[in-house]
Structures are given as structure tokens and as C-alpha cells.
TrEMBL record:
Chain coiled-coil ranges: none
Protein name: DNA polymerase nu
Pfam families according to UniProt: DNA_pol_A (PF00476), DNA_pol_P_Exo (PF18049)
Record's keyword terms, sorted: DNA replication
Record domain DNA polymerase nu pseudo-exo: where: 1-218
Gene3D superfamilies: Ribonuclease H-like superfamily/Ribonuclease H, Taq DNA Polymerase, Chain T, domain 4
Protein biosynthesis listed as a keyword: no
Phylogenetic lineage: Eukaryota, Metazoa, Chordata, Craniata, Vertebrata
PANTHER family (alphabetical): DNA POLYMERASE I (PTHR10133), DNA POLYMERASE NU (PTHR10133:SF27)
Source organism of the structure: Fulmarus glacialis (Northern fulmar)
Length: 338
């Protein structure tokens, strides 16, 4: 439902439902009709609103805690609600618009306050937008205390050797059937009914993918790292991008010069041991030297390959395997670290 169509009693019921939710799955929609779930979405179009899938309690009333090893959450059920919160202002009917905006803020504030997971693809952009739109009502501390899960970060953590996947890549990996993206009707400012339902389906898929990724993180022993490092960093970056921060320019310049000199030294060392000049930051050139010229992959079993093109990977995992076979992989690892 579009919250602007709700009466007072319905609004109270919605807030009560949010209070009892076990998770929220959300995405921002933009003026150009795209959402955060679109593969090529870049934040050039202004935010029009937020769509939230409210996951309700079923047989398992308690979701896992932030650091719990119990990652099984509720599947889709008929009590889930899909709501649209319009964040964009309008000069028409200003008093009514302010009332709608205030209630949208109440809903979002309660979501942040609930301490249950907010699942969002590109969660940093979502949190930063909340601070920009509702800066007077929502403080950075409330954002910092929220519980966010970003499937994009989870997927990257599981497989750092591949580029960060799009929502479409994630869905195609976990669901065989093709799916259609939803768009916003920018003429009326509301979601078309069919598109609204499509977006709801995609948010449900996003929820299910996050559950699968949580399972994979558990299996690979990465869940604690995900919760204690990656997720807090999302919120820190969102706040930093919204607020001014102070830095010591002279110290940064000094550090930059030291690291710059070390990079040049490592570059020369790499060229010397490789027997030719190449661009250390180029995966294709590095791959050519390591595997076509030095043929290091033939000396090591089970070398990881990239998912899309099935090329021998130049990831940290692979370089660690190769570093005892030749000096170059170790130099590249230090170069990347610097």
C-alpha cells in the first residue's frame, strides 16, 4: 500500500505491524523510474520514495541476533506487507505533503529503532539518503545503531576475486527463471500496480538470497567478520559521506609520499623478476605474465577461475597459493596492500 492512502487507524495498525516485524527488505525508487535493484543504476536521478517489504512473524517469532549462529529466518507468508513511502516533497497541498512526509519518517525511524535486520542492496546509499532527506529528524547515531544487511557485501566477501555482482547477477545465480524489473510511474508519483507487485517479488527474492548468503557465510566461517567489520563500516561510510570530517592534510601528504615511493620500488622489483615491464594493476597483463609466460598455474592444483569468463584468477587466494613458487606473486600481494 501507498502510505498516503491510509487513514489514522490504518496508520496505527501499520506502525504496530512494523513493531512486530522480523525483518525489512527495502529499496529506493528514483525519478527516472529505476530502483536500487537495477543493474546500471547510478545515483544521478533524485530519490522519489522507498519501497519496504515488511516480513512478519510466522512459526519462528525470533529472528537470529546480529551475531547468532542461527541464520534461519521466516519464509514468505501472507502476513507480509509491501509499503511505499514517498520521500520527495511537493509544493502542492503543502500541509498534506508535510503530514505524509512526517508519517514516512515515523515508519523509517521505527524500522531503524526495531533492532531487526534491514536488508538492502547497496545499503550505504539507502542510509545516506535517509540522513540527507530526514537529517533534522533522524540522527547519525540512530543510523549507526541500526541493523543493516547488504547482500552485495556478503556476495563480495564470499568471492572477492570477482567484481561485486549486481542484483540481477545474484538473482540469476539463485533463481533459474528470468525476472522483470519494476518501474515508477513518474507522472502520477505512484507505483503502477503490476510494477509494484514485481518489485515486491524481487524484494522477496532479495530476502531469500540474503538467507542463502548468510548460510554460505556461516559455512565458510565469515559470518563474524561480516557482522563485526563489514556491516558497521557500511554505516560509518554513510555517516561520513553525509557529515563533514576533519583530516590532517600534512600527515596525509607525508603518508602518501612514503607509500608512493614504496609502490615505485615494488613496481621495479616486479618488472625485474618478471623479466619485462607490465602494468601491475592490470589483471589481464598480470595473468599473461603469471600464467602464459611463467606458467605458474601448472605447478599448483585447483587454481580458482573467474565465474564469468572462466579465466585463471589473479585474486589474493590464488597469489597466496603461488607465492612460494616464484617471487612475483609475493611482490604483487605487497603492492596491492600498499
Amino acid at each position: 500500500c501507498d502510505i498516503r492512502s491510509l487513514g489514522c487507524e490504518e496508520k496505527r495498525e501499520l506502525l504496530a505491524t512494523i513493531e512486530q516485524a522480523v525483518a525489512f527488505v527495502t529499496t529506493m525508487v528514483f525519478q527516472d523510474g529505476s530502483s536500487q535493484l537495477d543493474s546500471e543504476q547510478v545515483l544521478t536521478s533524485s530519490v522519489k520514495g522507498v519501497v519496504v517489504l515488511v516480513k512478519n512473524q510466522t512459526d519462528h517469532p525470533c529472528p537470529p541476533s546480529y551475531f547468532s549462529t542461527d541464520y534461519t529466518w521466516n519464509a514468505a507468508n501472507e502476513n507480509d506487507k509491501l509499503i511505499y513511502l514517498k520521500t520527495e516533497g511537493s509544493s502542492l497541498w503543502e500541509q498534506e505533503q508535510q503530514a505524509h512526509k512526517k508519517f514516512a519518517w515515523q515508519v523509517l525511524f521505527q524500522m531503524l529503532h526495531c533492532k531487526v535486520p534491514i536488508i538492502c542492496f547497496n545499503a550505504k546509499d539507502f542510509l545516506r539518503t535517509l540522513l540527507q532527506v530526514y537529517g533534522n529528524e533522524i540522527s547519525w547515531k540512530q543510523v549507526a545503531d541500526s541493523v543493516v544487511l547488504d547482500p552485495r557485501i556478503a556476495a563480495w566477501l564470499i568471492n572477492p576475486s570477482d567484481t561485486v555482482p549486481s542484483f540481477e547477477c545474484l538473482i540469476q545465480k539463485y533463481f533459474e527463471k528470468p525476472f522483470s524489473m519494476a518501474t515508477v510511474n513518474t507522472d502520477t508519483g505512484t507505483l503502477r500496480n503490476a510494477s509494484y507487485q514485481n518489485l515486491g517479488v524481487n524484494l522477496e527474492k532479495l530476502y531469500n538470497v540474503m538467507m542463502d548468503l548468510a548460510h554460505d557465510l556461516q559455512v565458510q566461517g565469515l559470518w563474524k567478520l561480516f557482522c563485526t567489520l563489514e556491516l558497521p563500516l557500511i554505516k560509518i561510510l554513510a555517516v561520513m559521506e553525509t557529515h563533514k570530517i576533519r583530516v590532517n592534510k600534512q600527515e596525509l601528504k607525508k603518508t602518501s609520499e612514503i607509500l608512493g615511493l614504496r609502490l615505485k620500488e615494488l613496481e621495479q622489483e616486479a618488472h625485474q623478476v618478471a623479466g619485462e615491464r607490465f602494468l601491475l594493476t592490470s589483471s589481464s597483463q598480470l595473468r599473461e605474465v603469471l600464467f602464459e609466460k611463467l606458467k605458474l598455474h601448472t605447478l599448483c592444483e585447483k587454481i580458482h577461475r573467474t565465474e564469468v569468463q572462466q579465466l585463471v584468477s589473479t585474486s589474493e587466494v590464488v597469489l597466496n597459493k603461488l607465492q612460494d613458487l616464484h617471487p612475483l606473486p609475493k611482490i604483487i600481494l605487497e603492492y596491492r596492500q600498499v
